[in-house]
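Known limitations

Structure tokens in this collection are predictions and should be treated as such. Users comparing against experimental data should check residue numbering before alignment. To illustrate the layout, the record for SGNH/GDSL hydrolase family protein is reproduced below. The input appears on top and the generated tokens appear beneath it.
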Amino acid sequence: MTGLRLWRAMPIERRLAYGLVLFLVSLVTLSAPKSGYAENLPPLKIVAFGTSLTARGGWQPALEKDLAACLQRPVNVVSVAKSGETTIWALTQIDRVVDEQPDVILIELYANDATLQRFVSLSRSRQDIGEILDQLRQRVPRARIIVMAMNPFSGLRGLIRPFVESYISAHEAEARKRGLEFVDHRPNWERLAPGDLWAAIPDGAHPRPDIASKIIVPELVKHIAGRNCGG
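Generated tokens:
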């Protein structure tokens, strides 16, 4: 009761001033910016494992931003990728992927296996991707592993990959055989008009990063989050 007696003993002017201060403090507290992220959640770590379609892709920053907004937690995307490389190279990079201790691994490793001058047979490519998937499942058992099919090829870069669809199918089959996930971006690319598709992939293989972000990222966000975030 001491506090109440002190309050009643205050002059009316002091009571009004004190009440105004409390009101202003409450307004500031309510209007303070919120981070929007759930408290104490560590960043979701994603490793993008692949070829130049990842190394030169440019879609990773957009994936970080949009997926973080969707999940309401930080997202960190790290690339283990090299232009011109095959599954033979990828077998030597598994330690790098494992060392990141990812929550999600995105894999695209068929594109250069399918080029005629690389001499990676379809059976060798299938064997390699199977070994890669088995090692990742064993060494990072908590990670979601998502095998991807990327954009279509055209022009000379398409001509040197006459059987690329067979390589994609083989990689998809090896993923599904192990109960792993597969995301096919090709239908979204193929919805573009021919002129727009050429403008988006002017060299016939490597999409412009801004267009790649618009095509690839919403599909990945929806798949990883398990819902459409309306972005």
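For this record: The chain is about 50% helix and 15% strand. Residues 133 and 178 are 8 Å apart (CA to CA). Please report discrepancies through the issue tracker.
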